[in-house]
């Protein structure tokens, strides 16, 4: 339970922890654990979204969730997850394990460098802001006694009266700019992408489904014709999102507004690279079964985004990728609804507790690097548990003389 709290709060989802835990401690098989893990992440991400949707950006009058970068990365990331499903079924388990170790090791290394750098900067700022003891000043002479009259009384006219100080002016009320807390056009586009992917899964069949609900046989000519149709559509949406990101940033700068800490200077080239890199993120997360947050979150940190904005945006994006996976498992009839309801409720409660605890720790210590180190902890724990469970499965397959080569997708 504590792992999902930290995972969702840190914006990495936690799927790399849930699957091994459900296998080792709850007695589920891998085929049962993966769908249940996806349901937990999906329910947790919904609760997390309602917690974060009204939170304000730490440096500007805008939402904490960066909806624009979510729209930039989501189309290609979702397309990558579709390709990753194929690789997951074709590649041998030992190849997936090697790729997993390489990916997580690189992610931990890059994120650790970022976290340590942030920690050093935060320490310097906290030390500079700490009040220093003022130097000791020499004792001031005693005040002069007022003159006395002949009969020994104080002469009141000789006492200097302090001029009356005018009341300080009331502070001007700052006018808060209008904030579009919920950009419905962006949210509508993201929901449309999710609906498109779900429709595609329904037509061609979900994960591990040999025949789709409308009777299309896997690997038939009609299957491949319908399978590839989604990629030009997602590609066009991604092209539009790249153009939009660069245009919005140009208009923002042209208006005279100054970029704040954590803002990304979007150009067509940079937006295109991030969108293209999200394809690889989707492929790796889907084929290795680790969830998109473990890949997309570090990408955002590398762009220079603030950790709390990164965690909020990554959690928001997980909402769509997780529910896309849930729909595919429902189509393939691989979700037990009784267990799904129970673990889904666990995910909702844990998400609220985790986000609240993480917010408290960041506020108490004044260090946003805590979010980065939380994500690193979850990713490291995932690496250990996934390596153990996958290595054990590989060992048993070798002992049983199972085929360790490439498998047929059809």
Short account of what is shown:
It contains twelve helices and no strands. With 410 residues, it is mainly alpha-helical. The chain is globular.
Can you describe what's shown?
The protein is mostly helical and 410 residues long. It contains 12 helices and no strands. The protein is globular, with a radius of gyration of 29 Å. Residues 1-7 and 170-178 have low confidence and may be disordered.
Question: CA-to-CA gap between the ends?
Answer: 38 Å
What is the helical fraction, as a range of percent? 55-70%
Major β-sheet annotation:
none
Shape: globular
Quantity of strands, as a count: 0
Structural class: mainly alpha
Which percent range describes the beta-strand content?
A: under 5%
Give start-end ranges of low-pLDDT stretches: 1-7, 170-178
Order of helices and strands: HHHHHHHHHHHH
Please count the helical segments.
12
Write the layout of secondary structure elements.
Elements: H1 2-9, H2 15-24, H3 30-52, H4 67-90, H5 93-129, H6 184-204, H7 221-254, H8 268-288, H9 293-302, H10 307-331, H11 337-365, H12 369-399
Q: Which features would summarize this protein structure in a list?
A:
mainly alpha, globular, 410 residues
